[in-house]
Specification:
The protein is mainly β. It is built from three helices and 27 strands. It is globular and about 80 Å long.
Length: 483
């Protein structure tokens, strides 16, 4: 290997490690059929042997610094979308929406054991109303906290300008039995799109995980940290820091039978900042002015049934439920003196079908009031005085379980040609009832990059007053729809 080649490798590896440990980054999320995100999840396409350079660019990673036994690739991430919405009312008005994402993805496999991935993204746009509901709260699902407005304008639900960045990434190792990975990512529990414990729609969070995998069992322990959108007490800095929570998760899955899989998880959440007790909490062992930390104990359960259909099709039926246990015993849920020690949190049920030419997802999701940290009074305390709060299950101001309080979603896609896909998505959630027809054409499969066009309609409910239609067209590279 010549000196220039050695320098190139050293610089690229150094760049990747700097991204991972100095600036958090992201790699593609790759799930198996059970919804598990493994420690090793790179997707590196072998170099093309096409005759011309433009054909090779269309089939392989943009930059490939690989040399046996190491693989190192870099791809661009570009999303440009433009469209219009027509808002119904006394007078129908037409407005422009757009979305602009740019960044880069880095992936590497070193010595066949260590996998590294990262993604740095910047995003600006003017949201359609469903996304605008979040943008005016200065947060974007799957991204986290964002900026709002431009020149003191563009700050309504119907026309919200947002500016946000995202850094995600991980480094992983496995010997087939033991595994370990760490980084900043949104890990996932269960086979669904949403989750009763933690979902891909949540914002990236720092984590470290170790796992042990046998033939029919897999056990993992994860530590993580969630960031609140509320600021703590003023400290030595000019502006108080955002409150944080520490999360410890122990998860186990068991292939009970060839077609049955059971998963359970225990999650302990503890607020990093202390809170101060109010007066009148003596029955709870707290005197007014005492400092305490908000905590929460959560149990998550899932049952999956896997089956085959047609010739190559695979399907899974899944049911999930999470419970708040332990400290919830003192919460009043009925008349005086009646209480229970367990509260149901989030419920998910669904069906997923995958075949060579089509995919189908049907999923129902509901989150109860018990997910709130201050929604219940405590036994023995007056009705006008709430008890100590529970730890929040929010990260960056959004629930880690899912972005809506409730939803019923149906989405199906069909492969009409090797690179042409068409999809229909419909959802009823607490904000709106909406449906969308989407057509996608793959331009570059390795990055990947697609040309897409969307046509949709939304009927507003309690959280969204307006009804509207939208039409959009653009290109995107491996950025999932925010809904």
């Amino acid at each position: 290997m010549n000196k220039n080649r050695i320098k190139s490798h050293a610089l690229l590896v150094g760049f990747g490690l700097a991204l991972l440990f100095c600036v958090p980054v992201h790699a593609q999320i790759v799930q198996d059929s059970t919804g598990h995100i493994p420690a090793l999840r790179t997707r590196i396409t072998p170099p093309s042997d096409a005759a011309t350079w433009w054909q090779r660019v269309g089939e392989q990673h943009l930059l490939d610094f690989s040399e046996a036994p190491n693989k190192i690739v870099v791809d661009p991430i570009v999303q440009v979308m433009a469209g219009v919405i027509q808002i119904d009312g006394d007078e129908r008005k037409t407005q422009t929406i757009w979305d602009n994402i740019r960044g880069a993805r880095f992936q590497a496999e070193l010595d066949g054991q260590f996998h590294i991935g990262g993604e740095l993204l910047e995003r600006q746009g003017v949201a359609e109303p469903l996304l605008g509901l979040w943008a005016v709260q200065k947060r974007i699902p799957g991204w986290g906290r964002s900026k709002l407005g431009r020149n003191s304008g563009w700050n309504t639900v119907d026309q919200a300008y947002y500016d946000v960045s995202r850094a995600r990434g991980w480094t992983g190792w496995s010997n087939g039995v033991w595994s370990a990975d760490a980084g900043i990512d949104a890990l996932h529990f269960g086979a669904g799109r949403t989750s009763a414990l933690i979902s891909k729609t949540s914002a990236p969070a720092p984590y470290a995980r170790i796992g042990f995998d046998q033939k029919h069992h897999r056990t993992e322990f994860t530590i993580s940290q969630w960031l609140s959108d509320e600021r703590g007490p003023m400290g030595e800095t000019a502006e108080s820091l955002l409150n944080r929570s520490h999360i410890f998760t122990l998860q186990h899955s068991w292939n009970a039978k060839p077609k049955w899989l059971l998963q359970c998880a225990y999650q302990f959440i503890r607020g990093k900042s202390t809170s101060v007790a109010d007066s009148g909490w003596a029955s709870l062992g707290l005197v007014g002015g005492d400092a305490y930390r908000a905590v929460r104990h959560i149990i998550g359960l899932e049952s999956q049934y896997h089956f085959n259909f047609l010739t190559t099709g695979q399907g899974v039926v899944y049911v999930q439920q999470s419970f708040d246990i332990g400290g919830a015993a003192r919460r009043v849920v009925g008349s005086e003196g009646k209480h229970r020690s367990t509260h149901g949190l989030t419920s998910v049920a669904g069906l997923r079908l995958n075949a060579s030419k089509f995919e189908l997802l049907i999923e129902a999701y509901q989150r109860s009031e018990a997910t709130c940290s201050t929604c219940f009074d405590y036994e023995g305390i007056g009705p006008d005085l709430a008890g100590p709060k529970m730890a929040s299950i929010d990260h960056a101001g959004m629930s880690v379980h899912g972005i809506w309080t409730e939803s019923l979603r149906v989405q199906g896609s069909a492969q009409l040609a090797p690179r042409w896909n068409i999809a229909i998505i419909g959802e009823q959630n607490n904000a709106a009832v909406w449906a969308q027809l989407q057509s996608r054409f793959t331009i570059q499969p390795a990055w990947p990059m697609e040309l897409f066009c969307n046509v949709g309609k939304a009927v507003g409910r309690l959280d969204l007053a307006s009804n509207y239609q939208w039409y959009s067209i653009g290109i995107h590279a491996a950025i999932a729809d925010w809904q």
